[in-house]
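Structure ticket #2291
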Amino acid sequence: MAAAAAGAPERVLPASPNWYCSRCSDASEDGSLFGFAARNSICLLVVRSGVPTFHGELVGHTERVSGFSFCHYPGQSNYCASSSDDGAVKIWDVQTLATVTEHTLHQNIISALHWSPQMKDLVVSGDEKGIVICYWHNRSNSQQFFPEPRTIFCLTCSPHHENLVAIGYKDGIVVIIDISRKGEVVHRLRGHDDEIHSLAWCPVLGEEGLSSWQEEGQEDAINGCSLEEVATVTKSCYLASGSKDQTIRVWSYTRNRAVMTLKLPFLKRRGGSFESAVKERLWLTVHWPRSQPTQIFSSCFGGELLQSDLVQTGKRKWVLLGSSTEGQNHSRIVFNLCSLRSEGRELLLSISMDRDVKCWDLATLDCRWTMPSLGGFVYSLAFSPVDTGCLAIGVGDNMIRVWNTLSINNHYDVKTFWQGIKSKVTALSWHPTKEGCLAFGTDDGKVGIYDTYSNKPPQISSSYHKKTVYALAWGPPVPPLSLGGDGDRPSVTLYSCAGEGIVFQHNPWKLNGEAHDINKVIRGTNAIKHKLPAHTEISWKPDGSILAIGNEDGSMEIFQAPELKLLCTIQQHHKLINAIRWHHDHAAQPELSYMIASGSNNAVVYVHNIKNVIENPPERPVTITEPFRTLLGHTAKITSLSWSPHHDGRLVSVSYDGTAEVWDVLKEEPLHNYRGHRGRLLCVQWSPVEADCIYTGADDFCVHKWVPAKQEHSRPPQGKKSIELEKKRSLALKPKAKKKKKPLGKVPAVPDSECAVPTVNEDEDAVETPLEENGLLDQEAGKAQQEPEERPSTEGHKDSPTHPPLACAPDVQKPPVTFRILPVRKEHIKPGPDSSMKRKKPRSILPLSTSLDHRSKEELHQDCMRLATCLHSKGQKEDLPSCSRDHVHLGLFTNRPTLYRLMEAEGRSHLENGHPELFQQLMIWKGELKGALQLAAERGELTDQLVALSPMAGYQAWMWTVEAFTKQLCFQEQYVKAASHLLSLHKVYEAVELLKTHSFFREAIAIAKARLHPEDPVLKDLYTSWAAILEKDGHYSLAAKCYLGAAAPYDAAKVLSKKGDLTSLKAAAELSLIAGEKELSVTFSFRCAQELLSAKNWVGAQEVLQQHESLLGQRLVFCLHELLHKCLSERNPVQNRSPSIPCYHSWVVNQDCSFIEIVTTVWQSIFGVHTAEQAQNMFEQLQNIQYPPATSNTPPQQLLFYVSHELTLALLSHQTASWKEAVKAILRAVTQSYDAGNFTLMHEICNIIVPGDCDHLREKLDSSDIQSLSAYRSLQAFVAYVQLYNLWWNFPGDSLILEHGTLTSEVCNNEQSTLGCQISCASTSSSTEGIHDTEARPEEFFHKKDDGTSSETDSSINLNLLKKRQALSSCGVLLSEQHAAVQSVRRDISRVQQSLATLIHQHQKNNLQQSTTDEQDLVETQLPLSSPSMNEVGEPISLPDLMKQLTEANQKLAEFPSSIKDLPFPDVLECCLVMLHVGAQRVVDLDPELREQCLHLLQKFRANDVYREACRKFFT
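Resolution: structure written out below.
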């Protein structure tokens, strides 16, 4: 088993199963394994009636696994299949945990999968578009069907008929198809009204077993079922379907209809009534066990499981599983059920939204065991110091798990806490003495305390952190909490450290009170005036005497309690401190308790011994820069540390490199390395009970318990990130910026006002807080709103507070679906004063005075008496303030100072109640406008009204107010409004720059255009900046407008042409022409014409080119290309057949004329090229255009354009009588086709341009011009090569085969070499198998009659033979010994260069393989000493020998005249071979002189590659 392998974990809390999948869990046929899909992998458990054990994981998919199924064919239980949103279907071997094979035939999201029980290699899968694919993995064969254009929800293969597959769709239709008949629909079963969630075939073949069923006449609940009379059917079976319409239907395959309908009962849970929202979350899965064919198990509304008896009479036909004791059932909807037999018991396994995997005994219907799982990153682990073995786990699914690791009967005794937690749990800490007291910190900055022994909600501190809580620690109180007496203050207080860098001290007795920032104590005690560094970690020494604080800058500060006097600063790390741990204080050596270990982002663990500093505190803080021990090995940042409580100096560290390392600190030695996790490790705890057990948590949603001594490795993997870790991390779910793909149909329907439910057990948060240092996003669940009496679902999306939620959890309380607003009410409402709503009374600006004037009559009378006394007393000026000091509400009726006191009191009340605008009004009434403006600016509460009133305070005050309001608006991201206020100050440039900085280019341009000079460079800068951004984003048209606005038409045309399509190029060409950029317009017009040419639209191409006179030469090329294409199409219509219809010109030409005459006529009549001067100008225009040489990869259409260009030059030279240039151009056209391997095109060009031969060109050349004669000879050779090519393929195949042996023996005898024999024999086999099909062209052969006489006349035979002999004799120009010598030398150069390349490649390969060799070893392995190159004898050749051969060959090549080596020429040896083969036929005799010449050249310049190339060209 995989779990027993070396280094495997002892226990695992796995990731939770995926949700809303029709089949993502299954059990093996032999009953040993149970697997379920968890995120992008499959978790395998060894199933027993007692406690399950972890077997392993199937890792390979890159996205959510949507389907999983074991092979239930006998003897194949070790195979299983899975499907994923990545489009792959994989076949696995669970023994090796490896992929056997896979396919990616689906183009859409796969929604259902099943392994056929009747065929051992058939896997059937369906996707959301309705495509069904059957895949036989043993023979890698597949078939695709499309039975219905609907969304597939589930499918299942028949256990009795190997060709039947039942498919359930989103709209409630169930179809049965026969895959042996190309997916033909056998039955369409209609009856359900909503999504089909599950299908199950009856395990018993036939429909006789349930004989008590009667005719279906009505639908009722299970306690009043519908029935149908059963006909006698022997070869049929039943099919059960579960739907979201709350019904289970049993279908008869024979009768194509439902025979029973079961409705789900409405069960009351925990004394509450049924909620309509639960109905919306219903997922109805069904299972038909083989051991109980008359029983169907199904899920219900709230997580209950039901057993329905199909043959039982009476009203109530269902039994609730787990009804014997409370708390056995799931608390959320169940998605999948499967059964197996293990240890003599029939077991049922279920997975649910509550993240529990449960195992049920079908005999007793009780739950045997529960396997908890995790739905998020494991951020924190903490063992209780009081309740030994009690492990708290903080998870990113917004829950806390408390695992009793010492439980004997239940290895997974886990209790879950969720109340009061609305974010990821990132920190945990147990109270050092109080049992069950657990402190927790969350991602949203909340700190709370749970009592794990009660069901009460946690106490939440009223002081919130602004960012994620990273660390919690219990320690002795520090001022001000330490200043009280022993009975007035707690013995220990709770300290929390969060992402904003502040450490709070919370009073656990009064969490609703204000927490204290310990920075104030540190500043006061140590007289620190400078800014304190941001804190990231805290740790108290076990005896509570010393506090260690880690900082963001990598420093650690050691403080002495309780006054927090700074003893020393440790400057060792240079990056953020993630973990600090003190050594335990019960070591054999007392001095070890002074050791403190720390880990940071720089991947190094430092251990310091600060015994001297603690025992002898210095007067001033000291700085420590040298560590006691340095632990090197990790390759990524350290995330957590833990000392072994059972050993001295034994430490375990975990890191982002995906491993945990156990260290012997005193020896600085790595001992054991654990690599079992599939992601970054985030936390670690050494078991306080088991000395050889360690618990680790990671971002793979798992907690592992492992034994250090069983690990294979002793140190972390080398390198910055190991290859294995990279593979693991690449398989993790990746966050996507685009909209998440939601498998269609897998989410229950919700009203339009609600959000969609994610289909995996976790969501992807938009912002990563706990792990943001690495830039990686957390992909786990956020918690939705909780229901009052149920544990909440955690599949909802938790977004940042400033953004609207992206997805809502289905457990959120929804409005009743039957709620409506009746339109009748609106009809009776008529406009008018009576129907208008009563306006809300405005808030009083003097609420205190108003409220005091609404007291009792006696109190109001007393106020009157008091006021009269004050106003009419003697010495009014002195006594009046004193008499009204305690009654400020009388200030309205006394003097101004009393009124001011009234306003001050009213203002304080407004501020306390959150109404600063009313306070500002009071200050304005007092005449303190400047003070009101200043206070509002400081608080960021300036408004448009205050800005409008600010001129009352003067010009300078108004300017200052507008500037402050502008800054406030920028902070609130109201940049357009801020720019408007800057304009009021005439700060046009500042307003434009503000809008430009924040990408409001349109508004900035509008302002600049309206307020600045037209020639101001700022305007042009705006246009160009915006254009650059638009161009980067692909908005080319708008970018072109910006460039035009910036007076840069050249750039506008360039950016407009970037898309490269026809319309963009046309627009760019016209724009360039309008702007006067003629050269640029010519370029774009030519590109546009080429695009039209690729679409075979010569008419459109000429229309584009005719706009520019400078493109007249190209118009001639396009004209010749059109005529040449038309000519070739007429000669061979089959080969040139194309799906696009060519658009030719309707030029009137004489078909009886030659091609050259036709082209010349069109040029003269259409393009006006009449004179030699015009032709010369066009020739000079086109001569400067160079195209790349053609290769075998050149497309035929492009090759034809290159040839047309050269032929245009040839015809223009013909009109100017420049025969030398004409010959060169024709030669280039022919060699372009030759180099591209297009012999058909070369043959057609020769027939069109130089029909017959090219002797007429020889007469027009200058005999003294060596270059022109050499070009002519090359052209003559290629024409002869075409004739030889044509002659070869037009000989009868039978004659070639019969007489081939003569040539074979002759070549062998003349060459006297085994090589020649081998080549000839190879040619023999090629000729017999590779010659063109002789049956395809029967008219080319001589058919003999039965009497042996020829059916053709003798004159016809003699004429054909004469023509062929003449053609063969004319091929003698190909037998040039000079050209053969040049070609032989070039082959030698190529061979030597290839040997050099091979030699260098082998040397580089040897150097890479030698990882650690000294300099002496390198000297001994130099190139000349060992070489892979061999000579003809088989001996190795050294590098100097190769260089010598290369030099000699280059010298030989230099001796040849340039007229021979610079011009192309057909392969001479190849021509020799072909001529000998043709001459060996008895139909045509080869001239003896030519035969001897051929044999001489072959003997003199023989080469293996030439023989092979000839065979490839002429025998295939």
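Closing remark: The first strand starts at residue 11 and ends at 13.
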